[in-house]
Task: inverse folding
């Protein structure tokens, strides 16, 4: 056996050069193929993509049951995906296909051409009273608002005004489920996961349409 | 547990490198896809603090064995095979010879060289992959490199 390490190292370096590591080797096409095969085999528990919105990129995450999460940029998309990995499944891939419908409808909504969303929604991230609140929010019509107190009454818990506020601020699918249409009784707009500015933009847009 | 997308992002390129070294450019993409599909299936059960790269390379190793068996059963064309195109742009002179020399190594040596020097796995992991000891893996890799030197004579220094 040889002890000529310098020549060995040359061979090793040349071998490394003959098989370069290139990110372009695993391009979008190959990744899309993996996502499609994973979906066909029932392994794609969560797929996600980002879309543009008037207040920056939105993360859209979907399970086979429907849209499970919409996240604003300020929530930190990486952190949101890490939480989904724990809460739902780590079998997560970037794959736009499953959220094509919601992406298109969001585009139309932000362009003022759509008043409600017609996509399946998976509320597995919300339980109990919060889920009741979220379900009620879907009935608040485009362009109108309700106070936290009104929503509390509508869900049969008139005293649960704070809990309604908390449910709204934990809405996993904002914009699509319109928690932005719930405002304070005094007429001020109240808090929003996407920031009060984003909430104001949405309310102004709907009022103008 | 990290989202699987991060695993693909971090290790996808090195797995492709290994698939190409094991199978050549034509079958590498299939092996890559099958590797990550199997990995995704098993991922939720992966033990915390596992060496993810070694785990992926192990799956690729098995996929390559399956694929080699499959293609040796498949009917082969007769006569001269066309020159295989490179998958990585224009290689330097001699890269093709080096790849051919690597392909011609005995299986253990070839595996040891690929897993040690292209996948950058420690000898312990290489041994586990080749079902031999760490010391045997170390010897196989050294013998493999020595044989590559012997058979591959078109390097920059003659």
Result:
């Amino acid at each position: 056996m040889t002890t000529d390490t310098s020549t060995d190292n040359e061979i090793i370096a040349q071998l490394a050069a003959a098989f370069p590591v290139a990110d372009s080797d695993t391009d979008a096409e190959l990744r899309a193929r993996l996502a499609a095969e994973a979906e066909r085999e029932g392994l794609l528990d969560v797929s996600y993509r980002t879309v543009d919105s008037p207040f920056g990129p939105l993360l859209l995450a979907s399970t086979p049951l429907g849209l499970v999460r919409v996240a604003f940029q300020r929530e930190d998309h990486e952190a949101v995906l890490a939480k989904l990995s724990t809460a739902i499944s780590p079998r997560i891939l970037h794959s736009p296909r499953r959220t094509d419908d919601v992406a298109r409808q969001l585009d139309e909504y932000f362009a003022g051409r759509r008043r409600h969303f017609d996509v399946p929604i998976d509320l597995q991230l919300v339980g109990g009273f919060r889920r009741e609140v979220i379900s009620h929010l879907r009935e608040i019509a485009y362009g109108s608002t309700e106070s936290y107190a009104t929503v509390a009454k509508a869900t049969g818990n008139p005293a649960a005004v704070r809990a309604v506020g908390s449910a709204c601020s934990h809405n996993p699918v904002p914009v699509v489920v319109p928690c932005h249409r719930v405002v304070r009784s005094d007429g001020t707009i109240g808090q929003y996961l996407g920031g009060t500015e984003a909430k104001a933009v949405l309310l102004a847009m709907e009022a103008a349409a | 547990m990290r989202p699987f997308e991060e695993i693909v992002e971090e290790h996808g390129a090195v797995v492709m490198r290994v698939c190409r070294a094991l199978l050549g450019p034509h079958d590498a993409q299939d092996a890559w896809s099958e590797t990550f599909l199997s990995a995704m299936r098993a991922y939720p059960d992966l033990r915390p603090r596992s060496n993810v790269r070694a785990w992926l390379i192990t799956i690729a190793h098995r996929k390559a064995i399956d694929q080699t068996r499959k293609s040796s059963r498949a009917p082969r064309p007769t006569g001269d095979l066309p020159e295989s195109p490179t998958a990585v742009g224009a290689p330097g002179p001699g890269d093709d010879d080096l790849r051919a020399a690597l392909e011609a190594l005995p299986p253990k040596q070839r595996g040891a060289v690929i897993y040690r020097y292209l996948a950058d796995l420690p000898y312990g992991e290489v041994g586990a992959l080749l079902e031999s000891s760490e010391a045997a893996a170390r010897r196989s890799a050294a013998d493999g490199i020595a044989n590559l030197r012997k058979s591959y004579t078109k390097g920059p220094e003659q």
Notes: The CA atoms of residues 26 and 73 of chain B lie 17 Å apart. Helices of chain B lie at 4-23, 25-42, 52-73, 95-103, 107-118, 123-129, 134-151. The domain at 93-158 of chain B is CATH 1.10.10.10 (Arc Repressor Mutant, subunit A).
